[in-house]
Amino acid sequence: MGHSASAAVRKAVIPAAGLGTRFLPATKATPKEMLPVVDKPAIQYVVEEAVAAGLEDVLMITGRGKRALEDHFDRAWELEEALREKGDEERLAEVQLSSRLADVHYVRQGAPKGLGHAVLCAAPHVGYSPFAVLLGDDLIDERDPLLPAMIDVQREKGGSVVALIEVDPSQAHLYGCAAVEATDREDVVRITDLVEKPDPSEAPSNLAVIGRYVLAPEVFDVLRETEPGRGGEIQLTDALRTLAGRKAEEGGPVHGVLFRGRRYDTGDRADYLRATVRLAAERDDLGPEFLSWLREFVAEKDGQNGRSGRRQGK
């Protein structure tokens, strides 16, 4: 096999240069990655996932207005000292955790040229070894680890690996969808084609790509030659289509790992709210009281809707 099968996966790349326009005005001066999910910024969940998979070298692809990301993963000496003087050891530990999680590096994308371009910005840091890419809009529940399985498949089969979920065919246009062939493992497929946000009638399957990748380093050479696609951006999907047709010694093939665990989509406002509610409800320290209030709130809203319906029916 080629280089992509012989080296271990040790580095994670997290693209974080997006403008977060769907969350304006909250993201006018605050990076969308720093929006809290319960009491932690979304980006911290992603870094914690990478570290749990053994990837403690993390590169964030950032842009203008993202300084808060660097500050969050740095030491906050004044805050730490204030908490220490108060004897608030619990919050002190929480504050220090983010600065001790990983060896975090940063590089600026410079121009909004798409996910493929963001990944290409990681080439000097990654070198010629396979690496993971984690998108911040997808939060994977720590109780359902996904990356370790993907890294295992990459180690076994070489090339690149993407994460797939089954979606309703009517939702295919929201994702990149994969054409696949079965392998000797039930939860692993070989990808023969990828179509970015297809019309539902043209989707090759109901298997959609989500924001976790383990990529062969050959992807950098392909991305350098990839022309801008949808929206004038360099699409990672297009590069993966090229690699899917290659042999192992050329950086191929591409496999998919089917994920059936808990995933929280924070990409739009409604899904972000649902993710926050679900995670808060399952917390030992917040869940019981929050769920009690939530039941009362839902019952009250149902009662109001019922009364409103009866008045309209008169």
UniProtKB/TrEMBL annotation:
The keyword Transferase applies. Residues 11-279 form the Nucleotidyl transferase domain. InterPro entries: GalU_uridylyltTrfase_bac/arc, NTP_transferase_dom, Nucleotide-diphossugar_trans. It comes from the Bacteria. Its EC number is 2.7.7.9. Belongs to the UDPGP type 2 family. This is UTP--glucose-1-phosphate uridylyltransferase. The lineage of its organism: Bacteria, Bacillati, Actinomycetota, Actinomycetes, Propionibacteriales.
